Amino acid sequence: xxxxxxxxxxxxxxxxxxxxxxxxxxxxxxxxxxxxxxxxxxxxxxxxxxxxxxxxxxxxxxxxxxxxxxxxxxxxxxxxxxxxxxxxxxxxxxxxxxxxxxxxxxxxxxxxxxxxxxxxxxxxxxxxxxxxxxxxxxxxxxxxxxxxxxxxxxxxxxxxxxxxxxxxxxxxxxxxxxxxxxxxxxxxxxxxxxxxxxxxxxxxxxxxxxxxxxxxxxxxxxxxxxxxxxxxxxxxxxxxxxxxxxxxxxxxxxxxxxxxxxxxxxxxxxxxxxxxxxxxxxxxxxxxxxxxxxxxxxxxxxxxxxxxxxxxxxxxxxxxxxxxxxxxxxxxxxxxxxxxxxxxxxxxxxxxxxxxxxxxxxxxxxxxxxxxxxxxxxxxxxxxxxxxxxxxxxxxxxxxxxxxxxxx
Length: 408
What we know:
By secondary structure, the chain is α+β, with helices and mostly antiparallel strands. The chain has 15 helices and eleven strands. It is globular.
Protein backbone atom coordinates (compact mmCIF):
# COMPACT_ATOMS: atom_id res chain seq x y z
CA UNK A 1 0.00 0.00 0.00
CA UNK A 2 1.40 3.41 -0.96
CA UNK A 3 1.72 6.31 1.46
CA UNK A 4 -1.34 8.17 0.18
CA UNK A 5 -3.45 5.09 0.66
CA UNK A 6 -2.19 4.62 4.20
CA UNK A 7 -2.89 8.25 5.06
CA UNK A 8 -6.44 7.86 3.74
CA UNK A 9 -7.12 4.70 5.73
CA UNK A 10 -5.68 6.19 8.95
CA UNK A 11 -7.69 9.38 8.47
CA UNK A 12 -10.89 7.37 7.98
CA UNK A 13 -10.20 5.20 11.03
CA UNK A 14 -9.85 1.99 9.03
CA UNK A 15 -6.28 1.73 10.32
CA UNK A 16 -5.77 2.81 13.94
CA UNK A 17 -2.88 5.06 14.95
CA UNK A 18 -1.12 2.33 16.91
CA UNK A 19 -1.29 -0.06 13.94
CA UNK A 20 0.54 2.13 11.42
CA UNK A 21 3.98 0.60 12.04
CA UNK A 22 2.64 -2.76 10.83
CA UNK A 23 2.19 -1.21 7.37
CA UNK A 24 5.57 0.58 7.23
CA UNK A 25 7.78 -2.47 7.84
CA UNK A 26 8.64 -1.10 11.27
CA UNK A 27 9.82 2.26 9.92
CA UNK A 28 8.75 4.48 12.82
CA UNK A 29 9.79 7.71 11.16
CA UNK A 30 7.51 6.98 8.20
CA UNK A 31 4.72 5.93 10.56
CA UNK A 32 5.08 9.24 12.39
CA UNK A 33 4.69 11.15 9.13
CA UNK A 34 1.64 9.12 8.11
CA UNK A 35 -0.13 9.76 11.41
CA UNK A 36 0.58 13.48 11.15
CA UNK A 37 -0.64 13.70 7.55
CA UNK A 38 -3.75 11.71 8.49
CA UNK A 39 -4.60 14.31 11.13
CA UNK A 40 -4.00 17.11 8.62
CA UNK A 41 -6.35 15.41 6.15
CA UNK A 42 -9.00 14.57 8.75
CA UNK A 43 -9.24 18.07 10.21
CA UNK A 44 -8.14 20.22 7.25
CA UNK A 45 -5.23 21.74 9.18
CA UNK A 46 -1.48 22.16 8.81
CA UNK A 47 0.91 20.55 11.30
CA UNK A 48 4.02 21.80 9.55
CA UNK A 49 5.87 22.96 12.68
CA UNK A 50 5.03 19.84 14.66
CA UNK A 51 6.70 17.96 11.80
CA UNK A 52 10.05 19.78 12.11
CA UNK A 53 12.37 17.98 14.52
CA UNK A 54 15.79 16.38 14.94
CA UNK A 55 14.72 13.53 17.24
CA UNK A 56 14.76 10.11 15.57
CA UNK A 57 11.35 8.43 16.00
CA UNK A 58 13.02 5.04 15.66
CA UNK A 59 14.87 5.77 18.91
CA UNK A 60 11.99 7.07 21.02
CA UNK A 61 8.83 5.25 19.89
CA UNK A 62 8.28 2.31 22.18
CA UNK A 63 10.58 3.78 24.82
CA UNK A 64 9.41 7.34 25.38
CA UNK A 65 6.27 7.86 23.26
CA UNK A 66 3.46 6.09 21.42
CA UNK A 67 1.48 7.21 18.36
CA UNK A 68 4.13 9.84 17.63
CA UNK A 69 3.20 12.62 15.17
CA UNK A 70 6.16 14.98 15.73
CA UNK A 71 7.35 17.19 18.54
CA UNK A 72 6.32 20.24 20.51
CA UNK A 73 9.09 22.81 20.71
CA UNK A 74 9.65 24.90 23.83
CA UNK A 75 12.13 27.78 23.83
CA UNK A 76 15.17 27.00 25.96
CA UNK A 77 17.27 29.62 27.67
CA UNK A 78 20.20 29.44 30.04
CA UNK A 79 20.81 31.11 33.40
CA UNK A 80 24.17 31.51 35.05
CA UNK A 81 26.88 31.19 35.89
CA UNK A 82 25.86 30.07 39.35
CA UNK A 83 28.60 29.17 41.81
CA UNK A 84 27.73 26.11 43.86
CA UNK A 85 29.68 24.88 46.87
CA UNK A 86 28.10 21.47 47.10
CA UNK A 87 29.01 17.98 48.17
CA UNK A 88 28.79 16.82 44.55
CA UNK A 89 28.36 20.01 42.50
CA UNK A 90 31.44 22.20 42.84
CA UNK A 91 32.16 25.21 40.64
CA UNK A 92 30.18 27.44 38.33
CA UNK A 93 27.23 26.08 36.36
CA UNK A 94 24.89 27.23 33.61
CA UNK A 95 21.31 26.02 33.97
CA UNK A 96 19.13 25.21 30.92
CA UNK A 97 15.50 26.30 31.34
CA UNK A 98 12.74 25.37 28.88
CA UNK A 99 9.78 27.72 29.25
CA UNK A 100 7.37 30.02 27.47
CA UNK A 101 7.05 32.34 30.47
CA UNK A 102 8.77 35.61 29.71
CA UNK A 103 10.92 37.02 32.56
CA UNK A 104 11.55 33.61 34.17
CA UNK A 105 15.04 33.03 32.77
CA UNK A 106 15.97 36.67 33.36
CA UNK A 107 14.80 36.43 36.97
CA UNK A 108 16.74 33.23 37.70
CA UNK A 109 19.76 34.75 35.97
CA UNK A 110 19.60 37.78 38.28
CA UNK A 111 19.43 35.50 41.30
CA UNK A 112 22.44 33.55 40.01
CA UNK A 113 24.38 36.79 39.66
CA UNK A 114 23.65 37.88 43.22
CA UNK A 115 24.40 34.48 44.73
CA UNK A 116 27.65 34.07 42.80
CA UNK A 117 28.78 37.56 43.81
CA UNK A 118 28.07 36.57 47.42
CA UNK A 119 30.41 33.59 47.19
CA UNK A 120 27.98 30.96 45.96
CA UNK A 121 25.35 28.55 47.19
CA UNK A 122 25.98 25.86 49.79
CA UNK A 123 24.02 22.67 49.02
CA UNK A 124 23.40 19.64 51.23
CA UNK A 125 21.64 16.38 50.38
CA UNK A 126 19.75 15.11 53.42
CA UNK A 127 18.40 11.84 52.01
CA UNK A 128 18.14 9.90 48.75
CA UNK A 129 15.47 7.26 48.19
CA UNK A 130 12.84 6.24 45.69
CA UNK A 131 9.70 4.66 47.10
CA UNK A 132 6.93 2.33 46.04
CA UNK A 133 4.11 1.30 48.41
CA UNK A 134 2.22 -1.86 47.40
CA UNK A 135 -1.07 -2.75 49.09
CA UNK A 136 -1.74 -6.12 50.72
CA UNK A 137 -5.16 -7.26 51.89
CA UNK A 138 -4.86 -9.26 55.11
CA UNK A 139 -7.42 -11.32 57.08
CA UNK A 140 -7.22 -8.82 59.94
CA UNK A 141 -5.04 -6.16 61.55
CA UNK A 142 -3.01 -8.65 63.59
CA UNK A 143 -2.00 -10.53 60.46
CA UNK A 144 -1.09 -7.18 58.84
CA UNK A 145 1.15 -6.41 61.82
CA UNK A 146 2.73 -9.89 61.59
CA UNK A 147 3.52 -9.44 57.91
CA UNK A 148 4.90 -5.94 58.48
CA UNK A 149 7.22 -7.18 61.23
CA UNK A 150 8.43 -10.06 59.05
CA UNK A 151 9.18 -7.72 56.16
CA UNK A 152 11.05 -5.27 58.41
CA UNK A 153 13.18 -8.14 59.74
CA UNK A 154 13.97 -9.53 56.28
CA UNK A 155 15.19 -6.58 54.19
CA UNK A 156 18.40 -8.37 53.20
CA UNK A 157 16.54 -11.57 52.34
CA UNK A 158 14.09 -9.69 50.12
CA UNK A 159 16.97 -7.91 48.38
CA UNK A 160 18.60 -11.25 47.57
CA UNK A 161 15.44 -13.25 46.83
CA UNK A 162 13.52 -10.61 44.85
CA UNK A 163 15.21 -7.31 44.03
CA UNK A 164 18.54 -8.67 42.78
CA UNK A 165 16.64 -10.90 40.32
CA UNK A 166 15.35 -7.91 38.34
CA UNK A 167 17.96 -5.13 38.75
CA UNK A 168 21.70 -4.72 39.21
CA UNK A 169 21.38 -1.14 40.40
CA UNK A 170 18.40 -1.11 42.77
CA UNK A 171 19.01 -1.68 46.48
CA UNK A 172 16.21 -2.14 49.01
CA UNK A 173 17.23 -0.08 52.03
CA UNK A 174 14.17 0.14 54.28
CA UNK A 175 10.42 -0.25 54.58
CA UNK A 176 7.82 1.85 56.40
CA UNK A 177 4.59 -0.10 57.03
CA UNK A 178 1.17 1.52 57.44
CA UNK A 179 -1.86 -0.46 58.62
CA UNK A 180 -5.46 0.66 58.09
CA UNK A 181 -7.92 -1.99 59.27
CA UNK A 182 -6.97 -5.14 57.37
CA UNK A 183 -5.01 -3.18 54.75
CA UNK A 184 -1.22 -3.24 54.85
CA UNK A 185 0.72 -0.64 52.89
CA UNK A 186 4.45 -1.30 52.62
CA UNK A 187 6.35 1.86 51.67
CA UNK A 188 9.61 0.42 50.34
CA UNK A 189 12.64 2.71 50.11
CA UNK A 190 15.21 1.95 47.40
CA UNK A 191 18.59 3.29 46.34
CA UNK A 192 18.51 3.70 42.54
CA UNK A 193 21.89 5.12 41.50
CA UNK A 194 21.72 7.76 38.76
CA UNK A 195 18.24 6.71 37.61
CA UNK A 196 15.13 8.42 38.94
CA UNK A 197 14.16 4.81 39.46
CA UNK A 198 10.37 4.52 39.23
CA UNK A 199 10.46 1.60 36.80
CA UNK A 200 13.21 -0.05 38.83
CA UNK A 201 11.35 0.11 42.15
CA UNK A 202 8.03 -0.84 40.57
CA UNK A 203 9.43 -4.04 39.05
CA UNK A 204 11.36 -4.81 42.25
CA UNK A 205 8.30 -4.29 44.44
CA UNK A 206 6.28 -6.73 42.35
CA UNK A 207 8.95 -9.39 42.89
CA UNK A 208 8.83 -8.72 46.63
CA UNK A 209 5.05 -9.19 46.60
CA UNK A 210 5.52 -12.66 45.10
CA UNK A 211 7.85 -13.62 47.95
CA UNK A 212 5.43 -12.32 50.58
CA UNK A 213 2.50 -14.23 49.06
CA UNK A 214 4.60 -17.40 49.12
CA UNK A 215 5.41 -16.80 52.80
CA UNK A 216 1.85 -15.88 53.84
CA UNK A 217 -0.81 -17.86 51.96
CA UNK A 218 -3.71 -15.95 53.56
CA UNK A 219 -2.44 -12.55 52.41
CA UNK A 220 -3.45 -11.15 49.02
CA UNK A 221 -1.35 -8.72 46.99
CA UNK A 222 -3.97 -6.25 45.75
CA UNK A 223 -2.24 -3.25 44.15
CA UNK A 224 1.33 -2.49 43.17
CA UNK A 225 0.79 1.11 44.28
CA UNK A 226 -1.37 1.80 47.28
CA UNK A 227 -0.88 5.57 46.88
CA UNK A 228 1.40 5.95 49.90
CA UNK A 229 4.46 6.04 47.59
CA UNK A 230 3.40 8.95 46.87
CA UNK A 231 3.83 9.62 43.16
CA UNK A 232 2.65 12.67 41.18
CA UNK A 233 0.16 13.99 43.74
CA UNK A 234 0.37 16.78 46.34
CA UNK A 235 0.80 15.03 49.68
CA UNK A 236 2.01 15.34 53.25
CA UNK A 237 3.89 12.01 53.13
CA UNK A 238 6.63 13.21 50.78
CA UNK A 239 6.63 16.69 52.27
CA UNK A 240 7.50 15.22 55.68
CA UNK A 241 9.40 12.00 54.85
CA UNK A 242 10.92 12.90 51.49
CA UNK A 243 11.07 11.04 48.19
CA UNK A 244 13.84 11.15 45.62
CA UNK A 245 16.45 13.65 46.76
CA UNK A 246 15.84 15.79 49.85
CA UNK A 247 18.15 18.74 49.33
CA UNK A 248 18.81 22.13 50.91
CA UNK A 249 20.44 25.16 49.29
CA UNK A 250 21.46 28.16 51.36
CA UNK A 251 23.50 31.34 51.15
CA UNK A 252 24.44 34.47 53.04
CA UNK A 253 24.23 37.56 50.85
CA UNK A 254 25.98 40.71 52.07
CA UNK A 255 23.75 43.74 52.52
CA UNK A 256 25.70 45.66 49.88
CA UNK A 257 24.92 43.04 47.22
CA UNK A 258 21.23 42.93 48.19
CA UNK A 259 20.98 46.70 47.86
CA UNK A 260 23.08 47.04 44.71
CA UNK A 261 22.00 44.00 42.67
CA UNK A 262 18.51 43.35 44.01
CA UNK A 263 17.47 46.96 44.72
CA UNK A 264 16.01 46.21 48.15
CA UNK A 265 17.11 45.35 51.71
CA UNK A 266 17.57 42.14 53.70
CA UNK A 267 14.82 43.29 56.07
CA UNK A 268 12.24 43.71 53.31
CA UNK A 269 13.06 40.35 51.71
CA UNK A 270 12.78 38.60 55.09
CA UNK A 271 9.45 40.28 55.86
CA UNK A 272 7.96 39.53 52.44
CA UNK A 273 9.04 35.90 52.76
CA UNK A 274 7.51 35.59 56.23
CA UNK A 275 4.20 37.18 55.38
CA UNK A 276 3.85 35.76 51.86
CA UNK A 277 5.57 32.37 51.78
CA UNK A 278 4.97 31.29 55.37
CA UNK A 279 1.80 32.98 56.65
CA UNK A 280 0.10 33.23 53.27
CA UNK A 281 0.88 29.61 52.39
CA UNK A 282 -0.34 28.43 55.80
CA UNK A 283 -3.62 30.27 55.30
CA UNK A 284 -3.94 28.62 51.87
CA UNK A 285 -3.21 25.14 53.26
CA UNK A 286 -0.36 24.83 50.77
CA UNK A 287 2.44 22.25 50.65
CA UNK A 288 4.52 24.89 48.93
CA UNK A 289 5.75 27.42 51.47
CA UNK A 290 7.62 29.16 48.69
CA UNK A 291 7.25 31.75 45.95
CA UNK A 292 7.64 29.65 42.79
CA UNK A 293 9.66 26.44 43.11
CA UNK A 294 7.49 24.94 40.36
CA UNK A 295 8.62 27.52 37.81
CA UNK A 296 12.27 26.56 38.02
CA UNK A 297 11.73 22.84 38.62
CA UNK A 298 9.32 22.70 35.67
CA UNK A 299 11.65 24.52 33.30
CA UNK A 300 14.61 22.30 34.21
CA UNK A 301 12.50 19.11 34.05
CA UNK A 302 11.27 19.94 30.55
CA UNK A 303 14.77 20.82 29.39
CA UNK A 304 16.40 17.66 30.74
CA UNK A 305 13.85 14.89 30.18
CA UNK A 306 12.59 14.40 33.72
CA UNK A 307 9.09 13.08 34.42
CA UNK A 308 7.11 16.31 34.14
CA UNK A 309 4.30 15.04 36.39
CA UNK A 310 6.75 14.90 39.29
CA UNK A 311 6.97 18.68 39.23
CA UNK A 312 4.04 18.24 41.63
CA UNK A 313 6.30 16.97 44.42
CA UNK A 314 9.26 19.03 43.24
CA UNK A 315 7.23 22.15 44.01
CA UNK A 316 6.89 21.09 47.65
CA UNK A 317 9.22 22.96 49.95
CA UNK A 318 10.02 25.85 52.23
CA UNK A 319 11.86 29.11 51.66
CA UNK A 320 13.39 30.79 54.70
CA UNK A 321 14.88 34.28 54.90
CA UNK A 322 16.26 36.16 57.88
CA UNK A 323 18.61 38.99 58.68
CA UNK A 324 21.91 37.90 60.23
CA UNK A 325 23.39 39.62 63.31
CA UNK A 326 25.76 41.38 60.89
CA UNK A 327 22.84 42.81 58.91
CA UNK A 328 23.23 40.52 55.89
CA UNK A 329 20.61 38.23 54.34
CA UNK A 330 20.47 34.50 55.09
CA UNK A 331 18.22 32.66 52.62
CA UNK A 332 17.57 28.95 52.12
CA UNK A 333 15.28 26.58 50.29
CA UNK A 334 14.43 23.05 51.41
CA UNK A 335 13.19 20.61 48.78
CA UNK A 336 11.94 17.38 50.38
CA UNK A 337 10.95 15.52 47.24
CA UNK A 338 13.08 16.13 44.16
CA UNK A 339 12.65 13.07 41.93
CA UNK A 340 15.27 13.25 39.20
CA UNK A 341 17.73 11.13 37.25
CA UNK A 342 20.49 11.42 34.67
CA UNK A 343 19.98 8.02 33.01
CA UNK A 344 16.85 6.32 31.68
CA UNK A 345 13.47 7.72 30.72
CA UNK A 346 13.44 11.04 28.92
CA UNK A 347 17.14 11.65 29.60
CA UNK A 348 17.86 9.37 26.61
CA UNK A 349 16.24 11.81 24.16
CA UNK A 350 19.12 13.58 22.35
CA UNK A 351 18.00 17.18 22.97
CA UNK A 352 17.43 16.53 26.66
CA UNK A 353 20.73 14.69 26.97
CA UNK A 354 22.48 17.73 25.47
CA UNK A 355 20.84 19.95 28.09
CA UNK A 356 22.13 17.64 30.83
CA UNK A 357 25.61 17.86 29.28
CA UNK A 358 25.59 21.66 29.76
CA UNK A 359 25.72 20.94 33.50
CA UNK A 360 28.12 18.02 33.16
CA UNK A 361 25.62 15.45 34.44
CA UNK A 362 24.59 13.47 31.34
CA UNK A 363 24.62 9.71 31.86
CA UNK A 364 25.82 7.68 34.80
CA UNK A 365 28.25 8.95 37.39
CA UNK A 366 31.37 7.33 38.81
CA UNK A 367 30.63 5.99 41.33
CA UNK A 368 26.97 5.36 40.42
CA UNK A 369 24.60 7.93 41.86
CA UNK A 370 27.00 10.86 41.89
CA UNK A 371 25.67 12.47 38.71
CA UNK A 372 22.09 12.45 39.98
CA UNK A 373 23.16 13.94 43.30
CA UNK A 374 25.18 16.60 41.51
CA UNK A 375 22.16 17.38 39.36
CA UNK A 376 19.95 17.67 42.44
CA UNK A 377 22.33 20.21 43.97
CA UNK A 378 22.35 22.26 40.76
CA UNK A 379 18.54 22.29 40.65
CA UNK A 380 18.38 23.36 44.29
CA UNK A 381 20.84 26.18 43.60
CA UNK A 382 18.76 27.34 40.64
CA UNK A 383 15.58 27.24 42.73
CA UNK A 384 17.26 29.34 45.39
CA UNK A 385 18.26 31.85 42.70
CA UNK A 386 14.68 32.00 41.47
CA UNK A 387 13.25 32.46 44.96
CA UNK A 388 15.75 35.19 45.83
CA UNK A 389 15.11 37.14 42.66
CA UNK A 390 11.31 36.95 42.89
CA UNK A 391 11.23 37.88 46.59
CA UNK A 392 13.49 40.84 45.85
CA UNK A 393 11.28 41.93 42.94
CA UNK A 394 8.20 41.79 45.15
CA UNK A 395 9.96 43.64 47.99
CA UNK A 396 11.13 46.34 45.57
CA UNK A 397 7.71 46.39 43.85
CA UNK A 398 9.35 45.55 40.51
CA UNK A 399 7.33 42.40 39.70
CA UNK A 400 4.71 43.98 37.45
CA UNK A 401 7.31 46.13 35.72
CA UNK A 402 9.44 43.09 34.86
CA UNK A 403 6.46 41.23 33.38
CA UNK A 404 5.46 44.27 31.36
CA UNK A 405 8.95 44.50 29.88
CA UNK A 406 9.73 40.77 29.43
CA UNK A 407 6.50 38.83 29.58
CA UNK A 408 4.14 40.58 27.16
